[in-house]
Every structure is written in structure tokens, then in C-alpha cells.
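Archive entry. Fields below.
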Amino acid sequence: MPPIGRDFTTLSIERTAGDLSLISFLVPGHLQNVITRELLRDLATALDLLDSGPRPRGILLRSARSESFFAGADIARLDELRLRTGDEIEGLCNAGRRLFNRLSEAPWPSIAIIDGVCLGGGLEMALACDLRIATREPRTVLGFPEVKLGLLPGWGGTVRLPRLIGPGPAVELIATGESIGGESAARLGLVDGCVGADAALASAIRLLERDAETHAHLARRRRMNRAVELDDDERGFLEATSAAVILGRSGGHYPAPPLILETILAGCSVDPAEAARLESAAFATLARSPVSAQLVRLFRLGEWNRRDIGINANFGDQPPAAPAERPAVVGAGIMGAGIAASHLRHGFSLTLVDIQSEALTAAVPAILDEAAWDRQAKRTDPSRAVGLAGRLRTATSLSALGDADLVIESVVERTDVKRQVLTAIEQAVNAGTVIATNTSTNPITKLATALEDPSRFCGIHFFNPVRRMTLVEVVRGPATSDRTVMVAVAHAKRLGKCPIVVRDSPGFLVNRLLMPYLHESVEMLREGTDPERIDRVARGFGMPMGPLELYDMIGLDTALYAGLVMDEAFGDRIAASPVIPALVRAGRLGRKSGAGFYEHAAAGSRSPAAAGPGRRSRQRGSDATVTALVEPYALPPRVTDDATIADRLLLPVVLEATRVLDEGIVRDVRDIDLAVIHALGFPAFRGGVLAWADSIGAAEIVRRLEPLADLGIRMLPTPRLTEMARSGSTFASLVRLPDSLH
Ligand code: NAI
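PREDICTED_STRUCTURE:
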């Protein structure tokens, strides 16, 4: 059939047999379909055209792209929103909703065919149709990710979803932002059928024709136009349970989830028009909130990072280096096993070498358990584990590395052993093979001298636990080639990580920023501040755990060693604390030994998968033993308040970041914010340590540091900060690399 109306840029319309109209979307200039201004205009024109011409019996909406129905709103529009008044934002919500209402009020039934991602505004459009059919392809996911940007759906999502699937599941879906596949969507009643992609159009036509015959859609529309019946008990229960879960997850720092709950519950008891008004008002409030501004910026940083190839020359249009296809890991300890599991999980076949066969025997089941971990079911999928076993090759000799094109060394943290292993790896592999080390403290420059060709060598520093920590530091030594960096960066991305490239320097970036935070907590402990108070203040700021809790998780022995490295390099401000060796001598190594700054009880199995993401060992308060161990190193007591505790923990991190910038350790100021969020759990709602510093302002930071000056150089403003305070400039203004990447 010929297309109707040829002057559309984002869609086409054709008449099918049986007098149905088929609208196919293809939004140009984007990798996936997104809802742009042009799309909204074209959709309005298309509906006008259908209204004014010979009326179809029904309309089908689908994407001409197989990978996306609609990935949501055009993110570029969100920044424009922030510049508008609340009334203007509400007006935009109302306009979009009115357009979608034309589908739900049309004289004919409509169906959306959902193949590929269907998120946010795309799902709102689909919800405005009378029917939805999803494909069961893995690429098909449905959800409302707005909450992750500090927002809620503003085009009818909070009005229609609870009416369709019930308020409880609607709150769950919208407040978590999680997406679900086609089959789960069918089980929830979010779609009316789930079929293979090949059968989608025919099935949709069948469903639509049935509605056109029976007018069943009219009864459904009546149901969708009523308030949702919820008795007081149901409402009370939903309110209490959801509020508790939301508070637990958000720590009270994110305004969107509680407002989503409130808006959905309030919208249930009124008619859709009033519910829509509540939705617009809530959207306008959130769109103008500083938290949403930070989350949108972070989203853009993530996009920018995904496009970054790791080097600056001809940024953006360098030919990509051939990706590594035959990776290998040497060392099957805690980290090697985690790195191996990550490879299997992301579809790689892998060679794993360890000098000790017992280490391999112990590691393999844990690796397979973790790689086959089913996040939804919260257990290992045994059949998947069996399948993955065929892709893991183990060996006790480096001769197994013969065909590897990327080798990640992760053996014990001993310089002599590492140098020896790196030399042997180079002898075992081909000339083009990239060799990387996962060292956390050895300078890359020093290890590189063990190789004949140091240009093929770099650090790929993963964080523990590998499955959860998304940041990876790609460490560039003076001899590392651009190609090596590009291979390492591309490889980390294929493992689902966020790689940042840093120049070789003690502690690289992350540990260098972490150490002042950890160090200051022990100084405050020595001054007599209660450890639980220090940790509580840090958590109150939004950190996932306090510094003393973190010490216990890292392990006091590991921290001791890292502390010595930092002391040697930056002892004027990050001196090794005598308290840490005292705890280590007393056998208090943290969680792994059952006690550190706190007492710990083991939480079930130690295997990484069985422990499951996020599970914590139970923790009891610090005891008299710690007080006694700290006592010989006591410092003059200081009266302090919570705000000062927070400043003392975090302002030295800002100061260290200014030194990192001075030394050119990072390629772009934004990498610092990505690093602290993805490696240290710095609160996303604050946008990273430098975005947080900008939100306070350099002059105010200098003012807050003044009363702390007697603590020494670690609290003195750096020349860069002093200059920023004088000129009123911000870290954001230091962005160097092109913004067009956004
Ligand atoms: P680990 O002690 O658990 O495992 C080291 C493994 O290397 C052992 O299985 C050992 O048998 C093997 N090995 C020793 N010599 C070898 C040789 N010559 N050839 C082959 N294998 C050999 O150590 P872990 O914790 O896994 O650390 C490994 C590396 O990862 C270290 O460089 C460490 O600094 C780094 N790292 C550790 C983190 C952590 O939190 N544990 C975090 C980030 C990096």
C-alpha cells in the first residue's frame, strides 16, 4: 500500500488490508527512536489526517526500527525544561498528554506493537492505545526510568498505569525505574499479549480487528476513566509498605520516589483529568529540583563516557582499535575470579591461569556461580552455569596464553612476583597482545620495565567486588601506546564497566581520593569522636557506608599497605595512621577476621554469588578493645558538630581533587565525578565530589576550612582553590573535551 501523507520526517502511515492504518516510527538522527518535538508534531498531523480522511477501522503503532519502539523522551529537552517556569512545564506535560489522549479517545481502537525498548514517554504512548502487544525478544524491555533522572512520567504514566495493572505494581514499576521483559509485562497485564517478533504484526491485526468488531475497547476505556477503588486498609497498607521501602532505598535524599507514591495514590481516588493535573504539578516540581539536575547531568556523563575511546587525539573520530576477542586472566584469587566471572557473564570465552591448581579448583565453582547469577530470581541458574563451564579454560602454565590477545595479570600484590610474571607473560604471547595489570598500588611505570615492549602495557584496575563496582581505572604509563589504551577502554566497556583513563601516579585516582576520607575518620577517632557518629554522619551525607565501616570492609591489612604507599608519596597530608597497624597487630583485620573497628558476624556463605549483591555482615558497635587500642595514640580532644565532621571527611577529598587536576592525572574534570560515584559510592544526587563542591562554591569551602587550619596542611586551601574562590570560578568551567559528545 502506498504511504499516506509524504511530508513526515519521523513516521509513515499506510493503509493495510481491512481498512486499518499502520503508523511506523523512525526518528532520524538518533540511534534509537526518541520522542522529539518533530515526532510529537508529526503524530499530531498524522492523527489530524486520519480524522479528516476516510476513517480507519483501527490503527496500529509500531517502530520501523527493530531495536526500539521508543527509548523515551529526547534527553536534550530535559535541560531546556529546567529553564522554564513551573507553569510552562505543566503546560508542556498537558500538551503531550492531550496528544496521547487523542489515541485513547479516538473513534477507532488502537494497538501498539512493542518490539525493542519501550521506555518512559514511549510506554506512555503505548498505554494511551487500547491494546499493546510485546515481543518476547530479549531486546524488548518496558519500563519507566524517569525516577533515575529524579523525575516521574509526565504524559499520563502515573494516571494510566495504576488503572491498568493496579496501584501496588504501578508504584513498584515507576518508583524503582526497573524495566521488565515482554513476558513479565504480559503477566502483569501491562500488555495484552507476548509473541515472537515474526508473529507480532499478524497478532496485533487480529486483536485490533476483534476490538473493531466487538467494541470491547469501549468497555476498557470506561474502566480506565474511573477512579481506582482502594479501601482505607489497602491504601494504608500500600502507603506504609511502599513508603518504608522507598525511604530504605533512597535514604530520604531523593524527592522523586516519595512524590511518585503520593501522586499515584492521590491520582487513584480522583478522575483521570484531576489525576493528570496532579501528575503535571509533581513533574514540574521534580523537573526544577537540584537533584534532578544532578541526575540528568550524570546520565549525560555516562553517555559521554560510553562514547569516549580513551585518548584525546582526534577525539571522537579515531578508528577504533580491533577489540580483544581472546582474553585471559592470570591469577585466580579474589580479584582474578571476579574478573573471570565478569568475562563469562558478558559472553567471552576465557583462559584463566594460576600457578596453584588448588586456587583454580577453588575459584571455578565460585566463578560459574557468579557468572550464572540470575538477578531477578536471586539465585544461580544451574543450566546456565553448566553452559558457561564450556567457555572457561583453566591452566597452571602460562603457555596456555599462546593465542590470547589481551592478558590481565591479577596475581599477588608483590612487586617482585608481578615483574617476574609479566616478563613470562610477554614471552608466552604474540607481539600484538595487550598486557594489563590489575595492581592497586604498584606504579605502572615500574612494572613496565619488566617488559621488552612497554607500549603494549597498561593498568586495568578493577574494584572489589568486580560484579558490583562499575568503575575501572585504565592506567597509562609514560610508554603506554594509544592503541593499548583504546583496547583496554573498549574491553572494559564490553564488560559493562565505566572506564576512565588516568595517568600513572601513586594511588592512581580513586585510592588517592579515598585515602584523605579514610584517614580523617581515624584522626577524629583519636580525638575522641564516637566511631558510630562518624559513620552515621557520612551515611547521612549519602555515602553508602561510613569510613570506619569501609575500613572494615576493605580489610585493615590491605588498608595498612595502601596507606604506606600514600604516606610515601603524599605524607605531608595523608600520613599513615599508627592506629591501623595497632589494629592489625591485634588481629583485627575487619570483616574477614570477624572484627576491625566493629565486631562482625559472618552473613552466611563467603562465596561471592551466594553472598549475593549487597548483602552485609551483621555488625555490632565498636568495643572497649578498640578504645584501648586507640588510646596510646589519642589526640587532644576537639568539640565538634555533625556538619564539621562531614566537612572534615569530605573537604580534604575536594582539596586532593584540585591537586589531581593540577598534576593532569585525569583527562577531563568530569572523570573525577564519575570515579567517586562509581567506585566510592559518592551520592549520585550530589553529582560527584566536584559537582558538590560547585554547589557550595569555592569561597564557602575556603571559609569552612579556616577553623580547621590548625589541623595542618591537609586542611589548607590549595592555590587552585584559593584562586577559584577569588575569581568565583567553578570546576564545571574546567571541562576541556568537546561537549558535542553529549
Ligand atoms: P589473591 O591473593 O586473592 O590472589 C592472587 C592469586 O595469584 C592466587 O590465586 C595465587 O595463587 C596467584 N599467583 C601467585 N603467583 C602466581 C604466579 N606466579 N602465576 C600465576 N598465579 C599466581 O589476591 P587478590 O586480592 O585477588 O589480588 C590480586 C591483584 O588484584 C593484586 O594485584 C591486588 O592488588 C589487586 N587488587 C585487589 C583488590 C582487592 O580488594 N583484593 C582490589 C583491586 C585490585
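CURATOR_NOTE: The CA atoms of residues 398 and 428 lie 6 Å apart.
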